[in-house]
Amino acid sequence: MKQKLYILLFSLFAGVLSVQAASMAQADSAYIAGNYQQAAQQYQTLIDNGMQGVDLYYNAGNAYFRMGKIADAIIQYERALRLDATHADAKHNLAFAQAMTVDKIDPVGTIFLVNWWKACYRLASADTWAYASVGLFLLCLVCITVFVFGKSIAWRKTGFSIAIVALLFTIITALCASSRNAEVTDTSVAIIYVPTVTTKSSPDDSGNDLFILHEGTKVVIKSSLGEWTEVMTEDGNTGWLPTQSIVVI
């Protein structure tokens, strides 16, 4: 009975993957044919149904950009770069799309060590770092075994030295996996999704006007209250705006 259930579940899973692959191929064909609206709709349907992937987000971004929907394009390029921060084409297209937005905000500088750490853990996915960490930990255990039960001093010294190095890199790769996973699952970054919105000093319409943001600008979510969200721009300015005016990346 269990075997039949497993076969049924596998068949359903394989069927879903097959349908998704076919839908992706149809969207790609529509894009190649210049039917950007159709392609964007099909890509978005896949995304709304829970499908993820660098190529999916990147292609969706391209379709939206061709349609002149800059905010949608920026959202998809940002999502692609979350999964693969080294994707050169997504980086280039994102910069090009951002250059077409109204707001020109200079980000607050970060210290060198923070930038260096981000560059390091973005070299691979969270899963890759996790697998590396497990592999290094197993190597550490093997070397400890050699150190404890080795018959010669040379073998024991070698086992001890390698175990220390493996343990150090186990910790580093585990931290990389944790940092990369936190970045990918972060829900505090959003894009302004309306033509213009005026930020307020408090979460209500009676608050003082602070500054105006335009479509496509990236913001960081600080807090939420009812239908209002407090955001911070990349240059450090903060204000409240209607939650419906942003889309979380």
- pLDDT below 50 for ≥5 consecutive residues: which ranges? 8-17
Q: What is the number of domains?
A: 3
Broad shape? globular
Helix/strand-derived category reads alpha+beta
Helix content: 55-70%
CATH 2nd-level architecture of the largest domain: Alpha Horseshoe
In CATH, the topology of the largest domain is named Serine Threonine Protein Phosphatase 5, Tetratricopeptide repeat
Protein model, in words:
This protein has 249 residues and is α+β, with helices and mostly antiparallel strands. The chain has helices at residues 2-32, 36-48, 54-66, 70-83, 88-98, 112-121, 126-149, 153-184, and strands at residues 189-192, 196-200, 209-214, 218-225, 228-233, 238-242, 246-248. It has three domains: 2-98, Alpha Horseshoe (Serine Threonine Protein Phosphatase 5, Tetratricopeptide repeat), CATH 1.25.40.10; 112-184; 189-248, SH3 type barrels (Roll), CATH 2.30.30. The protein is built from eight helices and seven strands. It is globular, with a radius of gyration of 24 Å. Residues 8-17 have low confidence and may be disordered.
